[in-house]
Predict the 3D structure of the following.
Amino acid sequence: MSFLIPCPHCGPRSVYEFRFGGEARKRPAPEADAAAWAEYLHVRRNAAGVQTEWWFHRAGCRQWFQAERHTVTNHVRRAFRVEEETGRDAL
Amino acid sequence: MDELFQSRRMWRRHELKPHYDVAIVGAGVHGLATAYYLAKEHGVRKVALLEKGYLGCGSSGRNTAILRSNYRTVEGIPFYELSLKLYEQMSAELGWNVLFSQCGHLTLAHNDSGVAGLRVRAENNQLLGVDSRIIYPAEIRRLVPALDVSSGAHWPILAALYHPPGGIIRHDAVVWGYARACDALGVEIHPFTEVTGMETARGRVERVRTTRGDLAAGAVVNCTAGWASTVSQMAGVPLPIVTHPLQACVTEPLKPFLHHVIVSATLHVYVNQTDKGELVIGAEIDPYQSYSFRGTLPTLEQMATYTLELFPQLHGLRVLRQWAGVCDITPDFAPIIGRAEDVVNFYMDVGWGTYGFKAAPGSGKLLAALIATGRAPELLEPFAPGRFRQGRLVGEKAAAAVSH
């Protein structure tokens, strides 16, 4: 189903203006072992439900941001600038 | 004679028993093929197929029914070729017509890198005994007169990989044929029986919970598509899979004019004409992860635009219906088949992306051998679940992404 994403800069726009960047995951520490990096690189929760994920507004502000979307209904609960989220270690 | 006109159940109904030798989650073509070979070749008949919907309601009934084996890698080519050979014998083996038409399959190239890619595939295919070769516009025009091979096309056709044994099958017939054969061998098929959870202890799946009661099994097999991550996570096994929808559509029927499967990876489209005369058109996967089965207008527009690039004369044709299936995409565009690394009785046959239907018989046969003997057949080794941890990816991307 096509849907709208409320870009934090540009407002609600068609999903086809955006590039999907995958589920947001915590990066391992630089000194983490190879197994931790292999897991970070490949393993995904692939949730059938709400997930926090990266989007890039390629036909708009050309900024990366995150959104919470239900992957079964495609309903986007909210979208936000990562740097404005306190306590979120997403980068 | 009267018998011919009596309706008979192709598979029976059963009460769910508390224990099975093998419990297979998902009664699509992969689960059915695995159960069939377990019973037929290994004498393992206490098998339950647990299906949350009706048989073939998932990807087995949503794909575009294209069969081929002209893949790119040394791992992939013999693996898909095994299935193609099994499909060739299937009607005779199951006593059931699966309507396999080996009409031939053409993958088009529209630029130099595309031609180079086809050449690699042609060479690899020929080395491994698969009938596959490069042909150029004069021969393409002779084979498929309806195709626009003029140099004035927006994306001119420079060459094609011609794979004569490729073709089209009736995908529902394959599901029903396997289900009927499984039932005759004593396998229990349980439709509308959704697996809701698993209990694990000491590195084993001890119980499987379903909407019709719990059961235990010597081996539990995840043969789902679209729910592969969800089902494996029930057993505590994370997967490197991202699920995307893939859409297709079918047009109103025309007189027969197209006798081959036409694929263009550059144009993200594949087209064939069914025996009824309808065109079946498939797109690439949707550009974002989702479990939604709803069609979208942008994808329909894309399918129409690119089909008209290949066949401009179809501009007035109407679309009858459009649908979506969900595809479990792995990082190397190759499936994950084998025993879970940390759960000794949990097997997986997942991550089939956009190429699962054409690989089902071979995959089921090899997986049944692994479950029954404990040893992985050589053809399965490259697809083991541990390869991502070890950094041994297969690299089938060039052939598998959209080229059905």
Chain A has one domain: 4-26+33-84.
